[in-house]
Amino acid sequence: MSQRVLIILVPLLACQLLLLGPVWLGASLLTVAVWRGRLLGWRWLLLGCVLGLVSAAIEVARTQHPSVPVGAVVVQPTSWQPGSDHYYSFSGRTTNGVYVSGGGTVDEVGARQIDNARTPMTVQWHGDPTRISGPRNLYEFDYRAFAWAQYHQAYRLPSQKLRVMVRPRQSVSDWLFGVRMALLMRMDQLPDKMNTYARALILGLMDGDMNDMRDVFSRLGIIHLFSVSGLHIFALVGMLYWLTDRCRIPHEWVDWGLLLLLPTLLVIIPPGAGIVRSVWMRFTQVVNERWSWHLSTLDIFCLVLGGNLLWQPRVLTTLGGQLTYLLTFFLVVQPVAGRWRSAATMAAVSMPPLVVALYGVHLLTFAYNCLLMPIFERILMPLLIVACLWPQCPLWPTCNQVLGWFEAGLGWLGTLPGYWQFGALPWVAGIILLVLVLRAVVVGRWRLVLVTTAAMYASVNLHPYWRVTMIDVGQGDSILIEAPWKRATVLIDTGGRAFGTTSSPPAKRVTLNYLAARGLTHIDMLVLTHPDADHVGDAAVITHGIRVRRMVTTPMSAGDELITGAQINGRPAVATVMAGNALTVGPLHLRVVAPDHDAGETNGNSVVLYGKIGDSNWLLTGDADQAVETEQLLPQNLAVDFLKVGHHGSKSASNPQFIAALHLQYALASAGVNNRYGHPNAETVNTFKTLGIPLLVTKDAGMIWVDATVRGHRVHTFLH
């Protein structure tokens, strides 16, 4: 039966790709399916094509015209995230069944109700929901696509004062969420480290201290061990059979119990692709054994993947979906003997999708997985399950301390060499590389894989031109200068959290991602123009995320806590500059043209840089105001082609006389969408319009970058 199930699955996936893209891959798969499956009967091919086309057509229609949320939102007790000052974020389903997220403030009574919630609550809201926006920078994580692929979520509710009301449980799902809440309450009785790991490994919640370690785990390639996945379902089922065997409970009873238990896990645990695959594969295996369906493991895999594709047609566009189904398929059709050899082979197979999604891979991932997997399966998982059942055990403080040492050891491993910063590999190249890796595993010949990998690495890392990138960090500034062949990398300001804090600031989700995609492993110089939070608030995020060789600022700013806080054990060293100094990094030569004295306020003390990049002269002004422009810059008679507009386009900068004297080709400004200041100011916009100077603003254009050589340049914008 394996061939028939497979010959339904392949055209199903192929026809979905024909409508959802990429078309060429869908056409290729369909050609293979027709050629290989014609002897098994056209009706199976036709069935797969019909299922694929119908499901994809429905998905296209839903994507183009997503349902608008209407009515109150039902929020489960575990779907609240508390903030400060009685602000709460939430997610849930509206009266018409649309999944949404939102946030807002509540009064004292509402805050107590949410904090003590054990049953669902309804949230009354008003206003117009907003569509989730897509990325605004090259290589920025596309949360809009992820939210749609994972939850079919297209809208977010406006922030407002919320009206909440407790609602009694009305369905099995509500009761299961109550079980999840009860488990969380028991975990909260555990010491801090055990609580954090229990939430991650048993309920799939990576919050609190686990957020700080997430990057380390991702770098080592062991993130799947710290979040609920198919591995953990396998371990849980194995422990259940082990326990029931010793209690002499018949397997038949256990199998019936699993048929009831496994589907409930999809509510108690967030249903990621790995959980969905593992639960339904195990469920189908039990059914297959009980009713003697004579399905092979490949049959079961194809049935589960086909069902998941019908339910979530875009599941294979997510990294989790790609890895869980790719590795499972490989294990089913090409099992490898030996733990170390199997781990190395699986690491090789997972390398192409990891590089495409994360721009790098750790060369020792297989070794870390081999060493750590038994610890998780045989020690940590059973220990945490027992801890949830008996949270008052007096041994837990000691175990908590050991777990802290274990985490510190993992952090130390993350500092060791071995991570390969590959760069942004196009997904087409990733598919080609994956096919070659799979072929090499089967035939045992790796030379073509090594040659192709080296060629692809060279193609994505050889940058023969200058590039200046204005990164869209919202209401802030961050500009990256790259010299040809990676001979110099200078970052001017980092952006920052001017209002409140977030676990994923632009410097982390955008700037560090962009640096990784460009294949950059260090920054030669970080210039911090002045200590305003929207310019240097995330300096510490940068210095903790990538090696920085030098930091530069003015003497007036050097002692600010935002700048000193970016140092790690006094590194990198901070150099101070004033007008008249020069900054040289490889072939890049920049002059400091302001400030020439202490202006007494941060904007007037901004570092202003001037230099030739490629074929053009650039003036990068930070938040310098009109006084600096007219008194310090105008008398220097600078020849400027590209201007970084001062103070985000505020009317406090961009003096008309100064701008007219520059004879600009382009002006670039960084300002956030719907920012509270109205940047860029209408007067500033009119100044450039009157002089016929093109003004590009990140709030409209997204990321702006200029590629240049000594012979010419090209200006690019992400959104237009």
TrEMBL record:
Keywords recorded for this protein, A-Z: Cell membrane, Hydrolase, Membrane, Transmembrane, Transmembrane helix
GO annotation, cellular component aspect: plasma membrane
Coiled coil stretches, renumbered: none
Residue ranges of the TM segments: 41-61, 220-244, 256-280, 292-311, 354-376, 419-441, 448-466
Pfam assignment, any one: Lactamase_B
SUPFAM superfamilies: Metallo-hydrolase/oxidoreductase
Topology term for the membrane: Multi-pass membrane protein
Domain Metallo-beta-lactamase: 475-673
Source organism superkingdom: Bacteria
Any GO molecular function: hydrolase activity
Chief place of localization: membrane
Signal peptide start and end residues: none
InterPro entries xref list: ComA-like_MBL (IPR035681), ComEC_N (IPR004477), Competence_DNA_uptake (IPR052159), Metallo-B-lactamas (IPR001279), RibonucZ/Hydroxyglut_hydro (IPR036866)
Subcellular location: Cell membrane
Keyword Hydrolase in record: yes
Protein name listed in UniProt: Metallo-beta-lactamase superfamily hydrolase protein
